Amino acid sequence: LSMIILWFGVNSLTAVLTFFSLIGYAVIYTVYLKRATPQNIVIGGAAGAAPPLLGWVAVTGEVHSSALLLFLIIFVWTPPHFWALAIARKEEYAKVGIPMLPVTHGEAYTRLNILLYTILLVAITIVPYLTGMSGLIYLVTAMILGGMFLNQAIQMMRHPNDLERAMQTFKFSITYLGVLFAALLVDHYFLIQLNL
Asked: I want to staple 15 with a disulfide (CB 3.0 to 4.6 A). Which of 7, 37, 51, 119 is the partner?
């Protein structure tokens, strides 16, 4: 029913992309990838990163490079976000047979990957400014948040036995993404006001 509503009430491209996102999450990730590979959340992260792309397509009727950039930010944010939780809940994942990265490759390897993905994330979050999609409000916010996220990842490397630090990183990552996207909205509002 929802696909029919999207097709006729919004546009066909939104309906098709939503359908593929649903199949990606409900079937490919949940049924297969979740228990098949420690890269489950990397591959499955595409479905979780789809909402801003779907929203953009719903409003404009087309896939735009700015929408793909929003998708990419969430896609790259997903591994450090979930792997921090996976370290904190490693034993629980192991008990139920879900091959999260810390279960299959160890915590040290996972912490290193959290750091590497966080570095990549910080670099990608600068791109909206470089492409003119955002202004200084967003850039300053992205750099401050990026520095804070990098600090979290570095502290996880320095304190490998501190599971509470992993949970703090997980919780911070939620705040990080919310504030980052809020800054993008505020910045966009001010850019519109300045152009009037």
From this structure: 7
**Is there a contact between 19 and 3 (Cβ–Cβ < 8 Å)?**
yes
Over residues 110-165, the pLDDT tens digits come to 999 999 999 999 999 999 999 999 999 999 999 999 999 999 999 999 999 999 99
Rounded to 10°, the helix 65-88/50-60 angle is: 160
Burial class (CB in 10 A: 0-12, 13-18, 19+), 178: exposed
Instruction: Give me the percent of the chain exceeding a pLDDT of 70.
Output: 99
As given in the structure block, the two tokens for residue 171 are: 């919780």
Distance of CA 175 to the CA centre of its chain: 12
Q: In angstroms, rounded to a whole number, what is the distance separating the alpha carbons of residues 190 and 32?
A: 44
Q: What predicted TM-score, i.e. pTM, was given to this entire model?
A: 0.92
CA distance 142 to 1: 39
Structure tokens at 11: 């546009």
Sign of dihedral through CA atoms 196, 64, 128, 82? Answer: positive
Is residue 19 scored above 70 in pLDDT? yes
pLDDT-based confidence at residue 17 (cuts at 50, 70, 90): very high
Cα 43 from Cα 35, distance rounded (Å): 12
CB atoms closer than 10 angstroms to residue 2: 11
C-alpha dist (Å) from residue 133 to 121, 126, 171: 17, 10, 28
